[in-house]
Task: inverse folding
């Protein structure tokens, strides 16, 4: 019969910490030649611990920690460094979508909080339009009162490439803030998600109340599905950080934060190129009436569909599946 998990961790942790320290020194280039044998011995012991954990403690943080530790040790001992381009391609083909699927519960919770904020903002304004004075910024209320979209003149002020660049910067800022605020025990991320949801819901409800729902839909149709998906994914990453701080499980809080933090950063980094792409759509396609509403809606549905099809299907099976399991 297997020992209780805390006893197993207490007994084996010194070897894991020693292996982690040697790996850190190997990456820093300070590992001495005579320590390579110790590294190999500790790796083999950790691999045996991983097999034990996979049998008796599957799905625990200890199992995930050992899986990651052994993967790092194997790469350090047996595999030559991968080319940067190959590593980048492997990340987007396998690591990013697999990491998202493995942490789908956090992304789902993030989506729930964001949707809750949208519903709260919309219900308040629809039931009591004067609530918009509290929830919708004054300059937006002025545009809506004049039956104008605040985005109509955006291309007359700046060229599309400058607009796209500004949007990409703004979207990246929102994504990083949503993720990084998870360090406040997750409460920062919860606030950002609900607050952004309330803002979006209240603006949408005011537009509908003033007969401008169609214009708002026309503006967000092309870029909205992917952009809002990325906000939700960044929120999921922030919640992962918060969960590691509140409930580190069997690991010390620092190790749990490092483990969860690495996976959360993968989610944020994976979203970066999609943020740039959607900023181009938002800068060139969404404003104005050069493209018809149905073209924008079709583009938005296609981009959103392909984005989630990629996240849900990429990296399944293949040779690298075992390394990530």
Result:
């Amino acid at each position: 019969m297997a020992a209780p998990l805390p006893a197993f961790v207490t007994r084996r942790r010194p070897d894991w910490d020693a292996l982690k320290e040697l790996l850190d020194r190997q990456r820093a280039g300070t590992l001495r030649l005579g320590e390579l044998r110790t590294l190999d011995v500790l790796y083999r012991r950790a691999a045996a611990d991983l097999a034990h954990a996979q049998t008796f403690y599957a799905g625990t943080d200890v199992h995930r920690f050992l899986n990651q530790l052994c993967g790092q040790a194997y790469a350090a001992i047996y595999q030559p460094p991968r080319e940067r381009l190959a590593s980048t391609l492997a990340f987007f083909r396998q690591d990013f979508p697999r990491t998202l699927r493995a942490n789908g519960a956090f992304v789902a919770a993030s989506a729930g909080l964001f949707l809750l904020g949208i519903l709260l903002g919309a219900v308040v304004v629809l039931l009591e339009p004067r609530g918009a004075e509290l929830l919708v910024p004054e300059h937006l209320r002025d545009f809506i009162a004049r039956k104008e979209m605040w985005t109509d003149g955006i291309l007359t002020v700046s060229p599309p490439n400058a607009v796209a660049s500004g949007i990409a910067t703004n979207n990246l800022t929102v994504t990083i803030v949503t993720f990084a605020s998870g360090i406040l025990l997750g409460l920062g991320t919860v606030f950002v998600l609900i607050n952004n949801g309330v803002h979006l819901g209240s603006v949408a409800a005011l537009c509908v109340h003033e007969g401008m729902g169609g214009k708002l839909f026309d503006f967000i149709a092309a870029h909205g599905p992917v952009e809002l998906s990325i906000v939700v994914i960044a929120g999921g990453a922030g919640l992962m950080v918060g969960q590691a701080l509140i409930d580190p499980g069997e690991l010390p809080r620092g190790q749990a934060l490092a483990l969860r933090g690495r996976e959360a950063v993968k989610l944020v980094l994976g979203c970066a190129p999609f943020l740039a792409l959607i900023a181009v759509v938002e800068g060139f396609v969404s404003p104005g009436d050069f493209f018809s509403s149905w073209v924008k809606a079709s583009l938005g549905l296609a981009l959103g569909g392909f984005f989630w099809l990629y996240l849900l299907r990429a990296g399944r099976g293949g040779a690298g599946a075992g390394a990530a399991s």
Summary: Confidence is low (pLDDT under 50) at residues 319-325. The first helix runs from residue 5 to 28. Residues 95 and 315 are 7 Å apart (CA to CA).
